[in-house]
Amino acid sequence: MDVSLIAVLLVLGAIVGFAAGLLGIGGGMLLVPFMTMVLTARQFPQEHIVHMAIATSLATIMFTSISSVRAHHKRGAVLWKVVGLLAPGILVGSWVGPWIGAHMDSSTLALSFAVFVAFSATQMLIDKKPAASRELPGAPGMFGAGGVIGVLSGLVGAGGGFVSVPFMTWCNVRIHNAVATSAALGFPIALAGTLSNIWFGMKEAGLPEGSLGFIYLPALFVIAIASVTTAPLGARTAHSLPVKSLKRVFAILLYSLAGYMLYKGLR
Questions:
Q1: Secondary structure of the chain in HEC code, one letter for each residue
Q2: For residue range 77-112, what is the model confidence (pLDDT) as tens digits?
Q3: Residue 80 has what pLDDT?
Q4: In sequence order, which residues have a C-beta less than 8 Å from that of residue 80 and are 6 or more positions away?
Q5: How far apart are CA 248 and CA 125, in angstroms?
Q6: 38-85 pLDDT, tens per residue?
Q7: Distance, CA of 106 to CA of 46 (rounded, Å)
Q8: pLDDT score of 104
């Protein structure tokens, strides 16, 4: 990689890490559109660009989630019981998601990303108050919810926060706890999804040099170094913001990224 590309990826990684800590989204919702731009500019094979952007994004979440969750855990914000109930379904779903994605063309994958993100942003922006009696479901329901979160996360290359944060707040989990718990869920999502993207990507022909399956390793390493540094800062900032402001930031960010991926899918 040339120096200019390294500089771009370092800046991108720093922003993604901060967002991961701030919003509990693993950074993937930011990273996929920008990685799509970077890989397009580098003239990677068109049929692989979105797949590689998603896979590389998912792999970086293994690093950002660890850094982010440590900061949230120090504040006692992570609901580890919830993590334990959701994680088994997430592991299954995160393996299946990339398998589904491998059978979709880049345009369809980009459109799917846009739809999922826009829906999540709308749910967060509406900020409809949940029924006071609503609680998180029991173990079978949590396994099912984890499976859905894992499939969607593995499919679009995100840490799951775009689904898990609205789901938890809908069940009367406080937004700060939902963000912190979502950050902890990012690691099992990323681990299973990364292994799946390597496995299914190894069967693809024409991937560029430096790829491991669908993952572009040079970008992964540079982004991971920067994002791990800034994720704790984002986590600290999250605990100083009021609930409504945090939800509004989350929604506006997601709408912006959905718009770009919609444009990419319709081209």
A1: CCHHHHHHHHHHHHHHHHHHHHHCCCCHHHHHHHHHHHHHHCCCCHHHHHHHHHHHHHHHHHHHHHHHHHHHHHCCCCCHHHHHHHHHHHHHHHHHHHHHHHCCCHHHHHHHHHHHHHHHHHHHHHCCCCCCCCCCCCHHHHHHHHHHHHHHHHHHCCCCHHHHHHHHHHCCCCHHHHHHHHHHHHHHHHHHHHHHHHHHHCCCCCCCCCEECCEEHHHHHHHHHHHHHHHHHHHHHHCCCCHHHHHHHHHHHHHHHHHHHHHHHHC
A2: 899 999 999 999 999 998 888 888 878 887 887 787
A3: 94
A4: 184
A5: 6
A6: 888 888 888 888 889 888 988 888 887 787 788 778 888 899 999 999
A7: 8
A8: 82
Structural domain of residue 90, as residue ranges? 3-266
Count structural domains, the chain: 1
Q: Answer whether residue 26 shows pLDDT above 60.
A: no
Please report, as a single letter, which amino acid is at residue 136.
L
